[in-house]
Design brief:
The mean pLDDT is about 90. With about 90 residues, the chain is α+β, with helices and mostly antiparallel strands. Strands 1-2 form a two-stranded antiparallel sheet. It is built from 4 helices and 2 strands. It has a domain of about 60 residues. Helix content is about 50%, strand content about 15%. The radius of gyration is 19 Å and the shape is elongated.
């Protein structure tokens, strides 16, 4: 697609459809790569994000879950720690 001049058009269509918060193009493991920051409301949204890259570029896609500070605060780590702290005692 780079050679025939269509890569930019295809990338543009995909980015327009996915609407990432940000996107950065870079090298990854010696290959062309990109990092997209995307709101994924639920797991069923993953195919609509990944398939355009798979189908058009035979891309390798990885997803990383990230949280905002508010998300982390809402996770109630204190309650989780209380629930699981006794498990480590049982293992010793």
């Amino acid at each position: 697609m780079v050679r025939n001049g269509t890569a930019g058009l295809v990338i543009g269509r995909i980015v327009e459809e996915i609407k990432p918060e940000s996107i950065y193009f870079s090298e990854q493991d010696g290959n062309r790569g990109a990092v997209l920051v995307v709101e994924v409301p639920n797991a069923s949204a993953i195919p609509s994000i990944a398939e355009p890259w798979f189908l058009n570029f035979e891309a390798h896609c990885e997803f990383r879950i990230a949280m905002t500070p508010d998300d982390l605060q809402n996770a109630n780590l204190t309650k989780i720690a209380e629930k699981w702290q006794d498990v480590s005692v049982l293992q010793n």
